[in-house]
Amino acid sequence: MAVLDINQIRACFPSLKSGHIYADNAGGSRTAQAVIDRIVDYLTNTNAQLEAGYSAVNSQLVVEGTKVAAELFNAVSLDEVGFGSSSTMLFENLSRALENDIQPGDEFIITYEHEANNGPWKRLAARRNAVVKYWQPQPVSAENPYSVVYRIEELLPLVSSRTRLAAINACSNILGSVIPVEETVKALRQRAKEQGAAKFEVALDCVAYASHKRMDVQKWDVDYCVFSVYKVFGAHNAAAYVRSAALRTSFTSIVHDFLKVDDKPYKFQPGGPGNELVYGASAIVPYLKSLTPEDDLAASFDAIAEHEQEILTPLLRFLTDAKQFDRGVRILGTGEIDFSRIPTVCFVVVGQNAIKSKDIVGAFSKKGGISIQCGYFCAYYLIDNLRPKLDMNDGVVRISLVHYNTVEEVEKIVDVLREVLA
Ligand SMILES: Cc1ncc(COP(=O)(O)O)c(C=O)c1O
Hints:
seven-stranded mixed beta sheet, 16 helices
């Protein structure tokens, strides 16, 4: 397997030149120069109304962005991909487009993950008298109550003959854990069939997943899938996949009623897609493919995963060693280092010598040169439901890395943590 050339990679990101250590990548990644170049090029040279007779070039450029998002999703067709300003907004649009296909008594299964793929279904349930059920993560460690995981055995009993939709996350932006999507969706569909569910769909949040691993909506057999481009080295927008059958049979258009939408993604995309940002996104796949000689997304993501294990290891080892455990450090999620964990690590410091998460982040800010964050990161209910209860005003500390972070950077982060926890 190819090994990433980190120097070459870092040279693709202008903001990394300062040497500042960006360790809040789950909040937003750096933007690749190639993305910036395309946005500037679009605005400088081709900015005009899409579909205007005089704008054939810019319409074509926007299609380039759609092609790249389709490739990232592994969608069957470009007609299954739309854009919006954020994943939160796209999930809201999807739920509104689905509204007429929801009957009173239908059931939605949601999680305690980021509210983007929960709130829209809760609001839709309230509007349509549907029922919401929760797939809750469970503690898996006798020593650490915050070490929780989502397990299929708690998910499947939630499925009934009325289950209409499961809204799940490929990866947690807090726990750092990846669920086996293919296996989970297969088991869900099987159970829904056994229960006699008339129509069952899956909405997948890939926001915390997409910069780390290859998405594959076909293999996963999901109906809806969303990721934020600004967390995958692009600018601030998001992309949604909607299976063409769902576009045809589940969705009612939410755009101006006089527009002919023809079961195209425009059906759930009121307003334009954010043209220059969509064109900017078209640089992401070429960037990712350039990481390995194979010129292939799967190979690049394999190499990314290898490197990310390498940078995760010193951080997770430090935070989970016996000394830190005795000190009161408790990570969220599991301490195992394997490919089902991305390098996003959250922790709290509890006990007699507890330290507030804000004070830990404050110590990093005071020192300067490294950005980390604390809070609940919109996974409010995940953190609020942990026991013993955590202070929601303080939240958890999150350190989140991606493939452009280096082992040396992680060593510097660990050095600061060592000082703060001394
Ligand atoms: C897992 C997850 N889902 C959804 C979102 C929302 O994404 P956006 O900011 O594009 O609305 C985030 C943002 O942090 C996230 O981490």
